[in-house]
Amino acid sequence: MMLDAGPIEILISAILVVGGFFALVGSWGLARMPSLMTRLHGPTKVTTLGVGSCLIASMIYFPATQGKYSAHELLITLFLFLTAPITANMIAKAHLHRQGRSIDPNPMDDIAEGLPETGLGTGWATFEGQDAERADPPR
Amino acid sequence: MIKKLLPHPALTITLIVVWMLLANQLTLGGLVLGVIIGVVIPILTSPFWPDRPRVRFGPATWIYIAVVLWDIVAASFQIAVIVLFRRSKDLRSAWLVVPLDVRSPEAITMLAGTISMTPGTVSCDVSSCGRALLVHALDTPDPAAEVARIKRRYEARLKKVFA
């Protein structure tokens, strides 16, 4: 049987498979890592490449097969780059506060023993906000 | 006059480009509407930018973007290998304190975002004086070398962008 696929299709398929692989690995990292801080690393980086590969495939597919040019993929990339670090930052901060109150049963991140000092005489902003008296610093 | 009409030229250009990308077609009407939005929004929001830093759009900016994009790809392979082949108890994760040379909030935000997207590190917090970043590293044999790498590779380049 002849394969009815041109080089463009093969290229797109390869990019899609690579992207799917990285998205899977990122999710697997989220599932198997031992603690929250280590879990954060998979989705922030590996999954970004997974989504990026799918977007590149889309940017090749539509002009090549349907003659339509689309720029939405660039916007998705831009918004992804804006949101991924902020989401990770928010999760990390919430985690620091939870650890400070000893709710998290998994002390893998050494937060129970305390965060490193800033070395500048001041604390970390999460624990020294405007409502500093309400926040419990990590012990 | 031109400074009053365009208080934030970079924001104007960004808004026009994003508007054109959203519309997803190149028409004169869309461009006119984009220009209107790009002019009106910076004027309306200028009170929110009391002392914004000067951003240079020179070669340093493009080099920085290229380095970060390349590192995101490299980071993905690196983390994928760790996720697939490293046992959890062999992970050498560590907290890093990165002392900052950049001072403007925008530059620190860029650096924190870059650290989160690039190999093995997620930025978690900034010191309340704004002079150090708290960074979590997934797997680092030498924390001091990792801090030096962040400062050399990203912060030194960022300083040229936010000059």
Separation, N- and C-terminal Cα atoms of chain A: 68 Å
Shape of chain B: elongated
The H/E string of chain B reads HHHHEHEEH
CATH architectural category of chain A: Orthogonal Bundle
Poorly predicted ranges of chain A: 130-139
Structure summary:
Helix content of chain A is 61%, strand content 0%. Chain A contains 4 helices and no strands. Chain B has 163 residues and is mainly α.
Features:
heterodimer; A: 139 residues; mainly alpha; Helix Hairpins; 61% helix; disordered C terminus; B: 163 residues; Alpha-Beta Plaits; 2 domains; three-stranded antiparallel sheet; 3 strands; elongated
Describe this structure in words.
The complex is a heterodimer of chains A (139) and B (163). Chain A has helices spanning 7-32, 36-39, 41-66, 72-100. Chain A has 139 residues and is an all-alpha fold. Residues 130-139 of chain A have low confidence and may be disordered. Chain B has 2 domains: 2-48, no CATH class; 59-161, Alpha-Beta Plaits. Chain B is 59% helix and 11% strand. A 3-stranded antiparallel beta sheet of chain B has the order 1-3-2. In chain B, helix 4 (59-85) packs antiparallel against helix 6 (143-161). The longest helix of chain B is centred in the middle third of the chain and has 27 residues, at 59-85. The two termini of chain B are 25 Å apart. The mean pLDDT of chain B is 82. Classes of the chains: A mainly alpha (139), B mainly alpha (163). At the A-B interface, helix 1, helix 3 and helix 4 of A face helix 2, helix 4, strand 1, helix 5 and strand 2 of B.
